[in-house]
Amino acid sequence: MPLLALTGGIASGKSTIARRLAEHGAVVVDADAIVRDVQQPGSAVLDALAGEFGDDIIREDGSLDRGALAGRTFGDPAAVRRMNAIVHPAVRAESARRFAAALASDPDAVIVYDVPLLAETRADDPWDLIIVAHAPAAIRRQRLIDLRGFTEADAQARIAAQVSDEARLALADVVVDTAAPLADTLAQVDRLWQDLPRVIAQK
After folding, report:
1. Residue 15 assigned to a binding site
2. Partners of 176 in beta bridges
3. 101 marked ligand binding residue
4. Residue 7 marked ligand-binding
5. Which CATH code is given to the segment(s) 3-26+110-202?
6. pLDDT at position 180, please?
7. Does the annotation place 13 within a ligand binding site?
8. Is 63 annotated as a binding residue?
9. Which residues contact 88 (CB under 8 A, 6 or more apart)?
10. Among the four residues 92, 93, 111, 197, which has the most C-beta atoms within 10 Å?
């Protein structure tokens, strides 16, 4: 059971790579989806976040107001650390449960953990391979503006809030160039899938 980590900066095309790997048969475990799941109404994580950042981060329906939480944490490293200390242990436990479930279902499964914050949180875990989706920051900034409606200032702030490209690339066993046209990016993923046993053996 190979366990692969897939990471990349915001708007790097990481989700495109994850979808392609899933089409080839990989079991993709999405860290962002786990974050949402562990913060469901009534969860211990949500209760702890409200205790730390105020009950007004919870909407009337009991769900997390992500914008309100972001407003309390974005750009404040100490607040981000407090938030992460609540959220990350729960995400780690749930991801381990999902890895184990995938393995129990298929001992030969290729499991891909789609994790934006690998460099920040789980770089030292025992991955069989680390894949980094990479496009220069200028391209990612333009994608945020064109595709997600960000202002230039907001796009730049979101990119600046993440670790540097250099830090992510330093972790990479494989880099997928996502600045290339989509067809080229997908072809890179297809070649990786075909060569996966050899690539893992040679890392």
Report:
1. yes
2. 133
3. no
4. no
5. 3.40.50.300
6. 87
7. yes
8. no
9. 121
10. 111
